[in-house]
Write the structure tokens for this entry.
Amino acid sequence: MSFMIRRHFYRRRQERRRNAILRAITTPTREKRKLWTHARCHAWWQHACDTWTERDWLLNFRMRRTTFRHLCELLRPKLTRQDTRYRRAVPVELRVAVCLWRLATNLELRSISHLFGVGLSSACVFTQQVVAAINDNLKSQYLHTPKDAEFVEIVKGFHDRWGFPQCAGAVDGTHIPILAPSHNPADYYNRKGFYSIILQGVVDHNMKFWDVNIGWPGRVHDARVLSNSSLYERGQNGTLLPSLQETIQDVDVPLVILGDAAYPLLPWLMKPYQEGRGITAEQTAFNHRLSQARMTVERAFGRLKGRWRCLLKRCDCDVFFVSDIVLACCILHNFCESHNEEYICSDNDVHDQRPDPADRQIGGDSGANIRNALCAHFSALQ
């Protein structure tokens, strides 16, 4: 029986071989396959390069043509690709333009691919590559903790503009809308009624970020985000700010960062007095002066989201890539501010403040003494 089965399968194999040879002989020779590429129109991008004014570039790409070219030169070592036998590499300028358009408008990738004449997958890849290049190449230059000489300029800027001494920056948090993640979505559902991650930022007197913390779920309180950040760790061990003290009302006041009522009172972090019954006129004046200076970070968030509207609307990317996008937008914000790019205001550019009635006195007497000395200082100026 086994011999019969083996012979049956042997005959079937022989028959398939004969049929294959017969088809190869009788079938006409196929035409040589041509390398295919989808014909795409680059007329719009070419028209923009040839005819747009500096104002048009500023309105659409958030920077002038000259600044755009400078950005491309900074990213060129990371984004340059070689031509092959099959096709020419996509220019760096087009790659950067696709990414900036995505960040500035949050337009869907399909529409961007039609607009710039690239494939849908190419538009997605370009965005990811340019975001990674910005974070890798530009972060150390445009988003870093200031040096001692730079801190002196920041302190002078806050004092000259808002009359607040020894101020090295202002800190706050803002929500970045995201698509509900598949893992622990409830953790990302914030008190405002949407899913988000938190961006904590510290800015100088020119509304440029010098420290950011990105990625905490939207449900987490601002004070917890701070306590789990490197900013808090460096502030507590004394490596965050230089030792530049000024004697005010017989108290040696160090450099401080300004925050709202959601944050704890620390020797290096000032917050307003709790509003309500019992607050004195001097304390109210202190709160007003602190609020004026602290609004710098609120305005910085407004400009950040006004320029890069992918942060203002819901971003449907993976939650981990959203953090990379937010970091790239913060770097681009500083890049634009450093090159004196005009910010074109919109009525929708509003950053919601987060009021919190809790007066967290975690800092102990030292922070309270510093705040009282500043309060007395402002009272003496009136």
About this structure: The radius of gyration is 29 Å. Residues 350-363 have pLDDT under 50 and may be disordered.
